[in-house]
Amino acid sequence: MIKRYPVLAPLGALLARTGDEMAGTAILLFAFGDSSPDDGAAVFGLLAVAAAVGGPLLGVWLDRARSSGPLALSLASFTVGLAAVGGALYYRHGGLAMVFAVMAGLFGPTVAGGWSASLTDPDAARAQRLAVFDASSYSLAGLVSPALAGAAYAIAGSNAPLILTLLLLGAGTACAPFARVLRQADPNEETRPPHPLADLRRGIAAITHQPRLRAATVSSCVACFGFGLFAVLVPAIGQEQFGSPAAGAILLAVLAAAALASNALLDRRGALQRPGRVLTWATVLVGLGIAIAAAGHPVPAILAAVVIGAGDGPQLAGLIQIRHQEAATHLRTQVFTTGASLKITASGIGALAAAPLMHTGLTVALLTAAAAHLIAAYIASNAGDHSGGDACCRTRMPRTNGKVHVSGTNRRPPPWLRSWTARPGRSMGAGCGSINCGGIR
After folding, report:
1. pLDDT tens, residue by residue, 149-196
2. Which one, of 172, 228, 268, 235, lies nearest residue 369 by Cα?
3. Are strands 427-428 and 409-411 parallel, antiparallel or unpaired?
4. Alpha-carbon Rg of the chain, whole angstroms?
């Protein structure tokens, strides 16, 4: 199983995310052909709301697991829930479809946070490559899924996109047993609380109290507000600058392709060793691209899609790497699923803000989205980076009264080093040899 992991687990994440990207469009097309467009819109909204609520609780459950079984069960529940939604819509039971949508949506964050938490490795170099692939899988899914949904609809009718979505999610679920689960008992960790609510409190505390996690999470939420606003404006950009709302889909395809290319370059140059810097400057790049889109001309619009994509891929890769660095093993999935829920909520708020802002003009709305990313970049700059390599584990060393063991000796570090390591979030050494500030007082 371990030998198959390098291929099957990332492949499962990619397939599941492609199906998840198709799910919204597939449900809307299915409802349009077999039920009511209003029912489809309501189901789409309820899926997002339930995902925002279910993320933290789902993360607690997955974090307490000692195998990949709960991950596979969560993915299967999401897939079966979507199938039930389709069946209810087919028989025109709109109310029942909404109930099934809420139940399925509770498991939705598994596709994002559950897979991301498992795509890691004890080896720092491989962990960075997996973080880049993790971010790239979203871009690739965003690039491929609209084309797959459109082709399925054109060839086989309104039912085909939902059937294809369920097949992709099912294939991703089949790969879940090969996901890596790092939940072994750690003698250096405190005894875990017996009650799930205690784990829930610890997970929330990890996000709110750890400076790097807090800065990265808040930054991602502010950026998602801006990107949710921008995504709603894309059809208007296509209409105003190209004469057709469908041109917006082409801009999104260009954006996704640029994100894939930038992630490939990021992996090749090994820049993810400093994910805080990557997150900051990538967010600036996205904001700059959205500002370029406000120029009101077709050429700047295409350039804007390239610039936004060049920042969007590394932005997500940097965020994922910071979460892997800072989240304790027994809270990692909860950190990812809670972060996914917060991002879904922020993106929804941004989408809701689009309507009133559009009344003031497309340019004002785009500049608002760009400003949100610049604010997010400022917040991300507080995340910083570890001084030496990747903090791939959270090992706490015993208290030594200000002394540090170096090469078998017990040497007292110079004053400047003692004061520097006393600051929150600082570390010494590289890789799994990191000494966090909790071990030096």
Report:
1. 878 888 888 888 899 999 999 999 998 887 766 554 444 445 555 566
2. 228
3. unpaired
4. 22
